[in-house]
Automatic annotation (TrEMBL):
One of its GO terms (biological process) is DNA damage response. SUPFAM superfamilies: BRCT domain. This is BRCT domain-containing protein. One of its GO terms (cellular component) is nucleus. Pfam families: BRCT. PANTHER family: PAX TRANSCRIPTION ACTIVATION DOMAIN INTERACTING PROTEIN, PAX-INTERACTING PROTEIN 1. It is found in: Nucleus. The keyword DNA damage applies.
């Protein structure tokens, strides 16, 4: 297929309710809709830049992030059209994200996706372990998998490299405190930020 067109696209949605008519368009034209994130998703429908789990996973896999207008254009054409002109652009929220994270060079979704396509999976060959201090982590295994990494349930063995050790700023207990004295440990926010930007700013997020 030409650039910007996927033969059998797989859609999911974040931050908005997809109308039944829009789901019908997808099915009628030969596409697939998934309610949950999966590795087969090719298109994420969104109307603004929100740091949701699905959006972060989409950036990590290099999926196309498009506005709902894309489906309307497909309906009018009677086929899946070039999606590039429907790529999500949200300058206000992108600038706010850059300010909050002190990203001196700014941030755009387009640049992050281009970085993913050029450099490949962000965490390829990397294992990730979160210390017990990280309580809110239900989305992290999906994020690590989308970025090409391996999620570890147990603390890694010394020979298991490379490993990214993540934690919250508040230590969970003595055992974690001892480990954080021995190894380089980073704020878990490093992973969520990098999922959006496709850049691991380890120096900015190092805890120990």
């Amino acid at each position: 297929p030409p650039p910007g067109i996927v033969e059998r696209p797989v859609f999911t949605v974040t931050g908005l309710d997809l109308k039944s008519a829009d789901r019908h368009i997808i099915k009628e034209l030969g596409g697939v809709f998934r309610g949950d994130w999966s590795a087969e998703v090719t298109h994420l429908l969104a109307d603004t830049f929100r740091r949701t789990a699905k959006l972060m996973c989409a950036v990590c896999t290099g999926a196309r992030i498009v506005t709902p207008d894309y489906l309307r254009a497909c309906r009018e054409a009677g086929r899946f059209v070039d999606d590039r002109q429907f790529a999500l652009q949200d300058a206000v929220c992108e600038r706010a994200f850059a300010r909050k994270h002190h990203l001196m060079g700014g941030f755009t979704l387009d640049e992050a996706l281009e970085r993913r396509h050029t450099s490949g999976p962000l965490l390829k060959g990397v294992s990730v372990y979160c210390f017990p201090s990280v309580v809110e982590k239900h989305d992290l295994p999906h994020l690590v998998a989308a970025a090409g990494g391996t999620w570890l349930e147990c603390f890694p063995k010394p020979a298991q490299n490379p490993v990214l050790l993540l934690a919250e700023r508040e230590v969970s207990g003595k055992e974690e405190q001892q480990s954080r004295k021995k190894y380089k440990v980073y704020d878990v926010e490093l992973l969520r930020e990098a999922a959006c930007t496709q850049v691991l700013r380890k120096k900015a997020w190092r805890l120990s």
